[in-house]
From TrEMBL:
The chain crosses the membrane at residues 15-36, 161-180. Its main location: membrane. It comes from Chromobacterium aquaticum. Its EC number is 2.7.13.3. It is found in: Membrane. GO terms for molecular function: ATP binding. Pfam families: HATPase_c, HisKA. The keyword Mitochondrion does not apply. This is histidine kinase. Keywords: ATP-binding, Kinase, Membrane, Nucleotide-binding, Phosphoprotein, Transferase, Transmembrane, Transmembrane helix, Two-component regulatory system. CDD domains: HisKA.
Amino acid sequence: MIMPSLARRSLYRRLLWTSLSTILAVWLVLFAWFYWEVTRVGSGYLDGDLRGLARSLGTVYSADIKTGERVRIVDQLIGQFGHGYSEKPPLRSELAYRIVDKRQHLLAVSNTWPELELPIRADAPANQGRWRILMVDAVDAPVQVQLAVARSFVQRVQAEILVFFLMPLIAAVPIIMLLLRVGYGRALQPLALLASTITSRDVQSTAPLACPDPEYQELRPVFNSVNELLSRLATFREGEQRFFADAAHELRTPLAAIGAQVHLLARAESEQERAALAALLDASIARSGELVGKLLTLSRLDAESAQVRSEPFDLAALARAALSRHVPHALARNINLAYDGEQALPCRGDASAMDGLLDNLLDNAIRYCPDGASINVEVNAGFASARLAVLDDGPGIAPQWREQVLKRFVRLPDNTVTGSGLGLAIVKRVVELHGGSLLLTDGLNGNGLGVEIRLPRSMMAEEA
């Protein structure tokens, strides 16, 4: 069940909020930088312009200008300075000046010049009480200008900088969101087209998906993954269809035989004839049951969800138990069974699947070996793997056929022994699921067939 919080998640909204957050973060960083550059004490733009104002005042008072004209020029300079930072210029009570000559003789002073607790330093502006104070020597005149700016004006400048930056941002946020919404809506259209292309396909089709917008490199991994999945699905379906076709073909013969034998059994006249037909019927039923069992085993092993259970088992004990189960069948044909190898070899894996593997190998060996043959089972612990081998001295398999017989329903052309053609295919699949390797070699003393299986060291219990 999809949780409500997860159902509301959206890549579109994630892109929208990520972009908007990035824009706001950049805007705020620029605002912080501008605010710092303007208002920092000593080297900010405000203090730099205050120095320029002080030098201009020094030039005015060192020049031969009438008093009325000088007052007008001073007021004009102060107004120009104020309008550069605030819509409302500093009041007369917010900016004061004091001008002295080189001998500290007073030349001019405004009525609002404050009483300072500390002497003015010429190196940098400083805050004293409610004033910011600085002192500048005029460049072309032998005068010294002292300026005092009320910190209320500085705070008004700071507030107007804040409004100057934040009001446009507040007004622009809805417009930015609208533009991002439209832009991302158009940008994500290829993704919607991809979804439509996938959902509109025939559910039975496994043909590769055609990319409607191949120029978008972000969509290529999605198309490649979908096409890879479709290719795997096509392979699986092809194998499944071939499996069912082969199974139907293989089951047709024993079922036809059963039907014919039942028909003959119904028409049998003597008890002896009925007994012979009943024995043949039992053999046909047994063969059909064996074939169905192996088909079910192979189908289970082929399932997509087939997983190797990790459980401890003793490979040597499994091999000896499998030999014991096949002793009656071997004795009936005078076949010698032998075990050679470890007394115990702890492993981890699917014990049931390994048991079925041993049964298939021993059943095949006994089925195809002539009377009086020998079959050996060997279990050894190697440096990098555990080795399981079943060797016989029967007719064997020619080297050119050894790869073919590992496929399903493959039988040797000159073979007269009845079999399902699935035993070695089941063995191969079990080995694959355990991550091992399978090799068909010569058997005992260079005769017959040897099936050698190596299981990875990681399956051995000591390494688990």
